[in-house]
Amino acid sequence: MVVLNGVNLDVLDRRDPALYGGLSLSELETRIYEWGSQLGCHVRCRQTNSEGEYVEWCHDALDWADGVIVNPGAWTHYSYAIRDALEVAALPAIEVHLSDIEGREEWRRRSVIRDVCAGVVQGRGLEGYREALELLRTSLAGGR
Ligand code: DQA
Fold first, then answer.
1. Protein residue whose Cα sits closest to atom 1 of ligand 1
2. Residue 143 banded pLDDT, cuts 50, 70, 90
3. What CA–CA distance (Å, rounded) separates 107 from 102?
4. Model confidence over 46-96: pLDDT tens digits?
5. Atom of ligand 1 at shortest distance to CA of 6?
6. Which sign, positive or negative, has the C-alpha torsion 48, 49, 55, 58?
7. What is the mean pLDDT of residues 97-106?
8. Catalytic site residues?
């Protein structure tokens, strides 16, 4: 499995702690790796601020990953390029957001990637990534 964090998630610890929990990206990734090994999943985390690179990582995930967990940050709301790249990858994908995007500004309520994702976890903070790992693992096992 690959966890793809997108734009501005590298500076998570400098963003509003009320929304994002005040943790750093490396703290987040450490927890994801711990949860991955507890769940028996081989997990790799990547982050970029380049939309093109994110698109390429969606493409090449097909070569080595069995599923993807995506938090594209603000790209979630407008990047048809990332939406299409996830469609091309044709891997089970779970969308995750630390904050509750549906309870925030109008423009954040729309996700253009939702229709190509098998599930979504939002507003659960750090814990949301563990739930996303579990959802993806269930989906890969053919469960519901
Ligand atoms: C986010 C929500 C987005 O609206 C925002 O632009 C982010 C982070 C989240 O994890 O809550 O950068 O994806």
1. 73
2. low
3. 9
4. 999 999 999 999 999 999 999 999 999 999 999 999 999 999 999 999 999
5. 12
6. positive
7. 97
8. 20, 97
Could you tell me the domains of the chain?
Answer: 2-140 (3.40.50.9100)
Q: What gap in Å lies between CA 92 and CA 10, rounded to an integer?
A: 24
Pocket mutation for ligand 1, best pick of 98, 105, 120 (most atoms within 8 Å of C-beta): 98
Pocket residues: Cβ below 6 A from ligand 1: 8, 71, 73-74, 76, 97-99, 101, 108
pLDDT of residue 142: 83
Residue 25 DSSP one-character state: H
Mutation test of ligand 1: which of 71, 78, 129 has the most ligand atoms closer than 8 Å to its C-beta?
A: 71
Q: Nearest-CA neighbor of 25 among 40, 41, 3, 51? A: 3
Using CA atoms of 88, 112, 129, 30 in order, give the dihedral in degrees to the nearest 10: 70
Tens of pLDDT, residue by residue over 2-36, are: 999 999 999 999 999 999 999 999 999 999 999 99
